[in-house]
């Protein structure tokens, strides 16, 4: 295989059963013209994020194979976890990498949705750049009510599926999926030295673009925006770590990246009488995002001579400052997108 031009990052509602997690991984691995780059499971969220890349048609086919395996092995009636979700394959985003025509990718993803509906009887919505309406661009709107609220949600004409026919048996077992083409997103969680989820949620509300709802003196409700645009966030408790986290999605890391989110979170922590305890990245990250973070840290620490001199120094500085090794080992060769793809390409030559 000569080209890795499309990335796919499906989020699957299974993070505890290792046999099922591996079966889904094999559905990707066994697809020609695709490489499984990374998988990241959370028992608390009961969720696994797979990252794979390859040719356009290979990536589309691997996604289909994953859906087929998930449809067979996951029963949403048994699912419990901390992460919001609507289906067995909760969301399946595609990202156009260098060399990929994004409009062609959007067309192929639309065909995939119709195929899922026709052949696997899966129902779902298109979001982000594939969205059929403005309301459906934002994943949070689609997820509102989660799996448990699907029966009522699908009764509304505003939430008629983009593909597949809404049948009760299908909804009960698989739920509803969301897929589409989007820009690169960084999934980033910051640990707190507390088990108090309300503090984590309060910090998320201060930092995220959406902010929080406020009751006004006249009885009305108004939304107070948060500190950072292009940042989504929620607070939750992670039992396997024994601490609360603020879980962020950075939807435009060039506008607000790791440094801005980490610093804003530290500032918000002061208001809630807690401190950060390192952080973790979910899935892969572009090299430029870590370098940019490292440069901003170096500027902040400019009173320390020779704090960073080259690309690797900036990356190492970011890893140390953010505490990316605090709960799990962060290996740049595996977790930086370009390094991972390069290693996979070299292994196939």
Give a quick precis of the structure.
The protein has 349 residues and is an alpha+beta fold. It has helices at 18-29, 56-73, 102-119, 139-143, 150-153, 168-173, 197-207, 258-271, 287-300, 311-322, 332-335, 337-348, and strands spanning 6-8, 11-12, 34-42, 47-54, 89-96, 124-126, 177-181, 186-192, 212-215, 221-224, 231-238, 243-250, 276-282.
Explain how this protein is built.
The chain is of the alpha+beta class. It has two domains: 6-181, Formiminotransferase, N-terminal subdomain (Formiminotransferase-cyclodeaminase, Chain B, domain 1, 2-Layer Sandwich), CATH 3.30.990; 186-348, Alpha-Beta Plaits, CATH 3.30.70.670. The chain contains twelve helices and 13 strands. The strands form three sheets. Strands 1, 2, 3, 4, 5, 6 and 7 form a seven-stranded mixed beta sheet that branches. Strands 11-12-8-13 form a four-stranded antiparallel beta sheet. Helix 2 packs parallel to helix 3, helix 7 (197-207) packs across helix 8 (258-271) and helix 9 packs across helix 10. The termini are close together. The model has no long low-confidence stretch (mean pLDDT 94).
What is the fold's blueprint, element by element?
Blueprint lengths: L5 E3 L2 E2 L5 H12 L4 E9 L4 E8 L1 H18 L15 E8 L5 H18 L4 E3 L12 H5 L6 H4 L14 H6 L3 E5 L4 E7 L4 H11 L4 E4 L5 E4 L6 E8 L4 E8 L7 H14 L4 E7 L4 H14 L10 H12 L9 H4 L1 H12 L1
Parallel strand pairs: 5-7, 6-7
Antiparallel strand pairs: 1-4, 1-5, 2-4, 2-5, 3-4, 8-12, 8-13, 9-10, 11-12
Helix pairs in contact: 1-2, 2-3, 7-8, 9-10
């Amino acid at each position: 295989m000569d080209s890795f031009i499309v990335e796919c990052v499906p989020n699957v509602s299974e993070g505890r059963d290792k046999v099922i997690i591996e079966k889904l991984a094999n559905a990707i691995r066994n697809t020609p013209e695709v490489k499984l780059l990374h998988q990241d499971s959370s028992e608390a969220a009961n969720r696994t994020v797979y990252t794979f890349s390859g040719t356009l048609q290979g990536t589309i086919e691997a996604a289909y194979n994953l859906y087929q395996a998930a449809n067979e092995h996951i029963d949403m009636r048994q699912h419990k976890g901390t992460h919001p979700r609507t289906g067995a394959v909760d969301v399946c985003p595609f990202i156009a990498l260098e060399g990929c025509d994004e409009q062609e990718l959007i067309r192929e993803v639309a065909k995939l949705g119709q195929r899922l509906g026709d052949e696997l009887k899966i129902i779902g919505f298109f979001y982000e750049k594939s969205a059929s309406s403005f309301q459906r661009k934002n994943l949070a709107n689609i997820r509102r009510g989660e799996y448990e609220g699907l029966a009522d949600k699908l009764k509304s004409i505003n939430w008629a599926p983009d593909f597949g026919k809404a049948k009760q048996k299908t909804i009960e077992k698989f739920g509803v999926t969301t897929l589409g083409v989007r820009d690169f997103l960084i999934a980033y969680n910051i640990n707190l030295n507390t088990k108090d989820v309300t503090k984590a949620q309060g910090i998320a509300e201060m930092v995220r673009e959406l902010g929080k709802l406020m009751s006004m003196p006249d009885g009305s409700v108004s939304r107070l925006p948060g500190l950072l645009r292009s940042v989504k966030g929620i607070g939750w408790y992670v039992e396997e770590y024994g601490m609360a986290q603020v879980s962020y999605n950075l939807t435009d890391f060039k506008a607000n990246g790791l440094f801005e989110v980490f610093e804003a979170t530290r500032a918000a922590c002061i208001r809630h009488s807690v401190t950060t305890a390192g952080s973790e990245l979910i899935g892969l990250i572009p090299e430029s995002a870590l370098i940019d973070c490292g440069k901003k840290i170096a500027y902040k620490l400019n009173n320390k001579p020779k704090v960073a001199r080259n690309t690797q120094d900036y990356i190492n500085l970011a890893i140390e400052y953010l505490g990316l090794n605090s709960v799990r080992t962060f290996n740049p060769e595996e977790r930086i997108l370009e390094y991972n793809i390069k290693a996979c390409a070299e292994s196939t030559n």
